């Protein structure tokens, strides 16, 4: 589809390891989502510049028609834009490392977006995301923010409650990645060949239905046969660049499926079904953050440095674009061109899951168009799933209460209620350690 209009996009989190991927996929999509301008915004000038200097070269060589700039000034960043792509990490990897390591100190699973670590990260993200929404509304009132910045479930609950009319859509690529694996398992090209019914919370959900989009064939029986042995691990060429810890995650789906074989789980259920297994298999001194510093961050920043030194990206062999970046570009395209394609959104339930409260934030299929999202009805949640979701979403709501009320006790209740934490005394120890390191980012909790 082509149009006269060309769009202006700002990536908030210009220094993100995913930014070069966004850029490469935006360039690849110029025939369907044409840009006139691309900007980066970050609050760490030095980190952003390392990526931006390489992107400047890439843009000159591959898309000179698009005006490119980068800034730490919010007015410059958010003026004259149609889309904000959110990819910030408040506190960067230094704070992610604490999110993972502090709970482990007390025998509790430590993970980026789940358990106490995920709640700590969510509380850090709320004020930064609300601030970006406010700048977007002030400087580009017609713009849409498509946000990846975690912890999405908590950020989405804060948006629902505190910015109910904002043009912000909180998204996650995990179900897309899982569905792409399902497609590969069934011999299909990509997740685009699959139709689905999925429901849950972010990083906490289940497929009720998976079909071949073209023929309508029910793929659940075939998938279940495969998943009970291999989980969502595909192997071979498909997984040639997948890191070892992701392999373990996709294989673990076999155990998650065995627990509830009527549906197929989001791979993140491992953290709630098997938190003690996570602890037993973790190295408290070397967590996922350390792996990223040694691998993804090294590759991305190393390649940027190499391009800048060479003064060209012509021999650039690195391409970290992929599902993550394709997905956000496809969503911007769907909104820009009012396509009403089916993706997934984290939004107020309002009946999408019939036996959950209207004000629950849920992750469900939705049609994406010029007016934003139209969430779809997914039917009833199973008893097991509903019980789990009620507990988890209450934790997410309590974190937002803690933010609004500056309440230590609400945060302690959130930690205590969480399925990954054994009791209130352990919750308190974790929270007290987290209070110290999060001082620059959290509201003062009293
Ligand atoms: N929703 C999803 O499914 C999904 C998938 C992958 C990654 N993510 C999220 O994407 C984000 C980026 O991940 P990454 O690993 O590339 O992180 P990263 O640490 O490499 O980059 C994040 C950038 O955000 C910047 N930043 C921090 N606070 C900011 C603020 N207040 N304003 C502007 N910039 C700020 C940092 O300086 C840094 O350059 C994270 O939130 C991550 O959890 C989400
Ligand atoms: O440990 P990380 O930073 O590698 O991953 C944490 C994120 O994991 C999911 O995103 C994956 C995505 O599903 C996969 O397809 C590929 O693009 O990598 C992404 C990041 O590694 C999850 O959806 C995110 O919310 C997490 O932040
Ligand atoms: Mn996600």
From TrEMBL:
Signal peptide positions on this chain: none
Needed co-factor(s): NAD(+)
EC assignment: 3.2.1.122
InterPro entries according to UniProt: Glyco_hydro_4, Glyco_hydro_4_C, Lactate_DH/Glyco_Ohase_4_C, NAD(P)-bd_dom_sf
A molecular function GO annotation: maltose-6'-phosphate glucosidase activity
Keyword Oxidoreductase: no
The record's free-text note on cofactor binding: Binds 1 NAD(+) per subunit.
EC class of the enzyme, as a word: hydrolase
Glycosyl hydrolase family 4 C-terminal domain span: 198-421
Pfam family, one: Glyco_hydro_4C
Keywords: Glycosidase, Hydrolase, Manganese, Metal-binding, NAD
Family per record: Belongs to the glycosyl hydrolase 4 family.
Protein name in the entry: Maltose-6'-phosphate glucosidase
Lineage of the species this protein comes from: Bacteria, Bacillati, Bacillota, Bacilli, Lactobacillales
